[in-house]
Amino acid sequence: MKRIAVFFVGNRLMLDDGVGPAAYDLIREEYILPDNVDMFDVGCMSLDMISKVNEYDFMITVDAVDESGSEPGTVFRYRPHDIARTCGARTSLHDTKLADLFDAAALLGYASEGMCYGMQVLNLEPAEFMEGLTQPVADRLPFLAESVIAELVRQGCSIERKDGVPPVSYTHLRAHET
Fold first, then answer.
1. pLDDT of residue 82
2. Cα 140–Cα 36–Cα 26 angle in degrees, nearest 5
3. Are 126 and 15 in contact (CB under 8 A)?
4. Which residues of 100-113 are buried (b: 16+ CB within 10 A; e: fewer)?
5. pLDDT band, very low/low/confident/very high, at 114 (cuts 50, 70, 90)
6. How confident is the model at residue 53, as a pLDDT?
7. Helices marked H in 16-169 — which ranges?
8. Which side of the chain, N or C, has fewer Cβ within a 10 Å radius?
9. Dihedral of the CA atoms 146, 149, 151, 153 (nearest 10)?
10. Residue 35 gets which letter from DSSP?
């Protein structure tokens, strides 16, 4: 059975930058995950997490995206090295990306696979610290959470909803692949 880690990246006190932690809360509230999946509200990715690459077979990050040219609330699905090789737009708002973590871990002989999910934000620089999400991002938060759940299903996980609603077919979920 694959060991899977999901890292939710973002600052809860900076409006839409907190979309990762908000997705973490929503998934914990609504779903029962199997024992082989661990979720982490990490705040910010760092190279201190290199050992996690050795511990997990598959890693997912969930983060805010900005300057993509898309409408706020748009969900993106991309491979770790795709975003790292993109120039121009600030497509990840944090310094260390999953690709950076994989590259550094490879120097130690560690390897894992992964996928990244991001949501285009509206406001990540409030005038003062403010917890919460803007309306277009909050409205699409369930879709982001379901997209992460769909990825876990693609990786062979059996996911249950806490409310007892039968699992939906995740084949209808679409996220932009870049």
1. 73
2. 20
3. yes
4. bbbeebeeeebebe
5. confident
6. 78
7. 19-30, 50-55, 80-84, 98-106, 135-154
8. N
9. -130
10. T
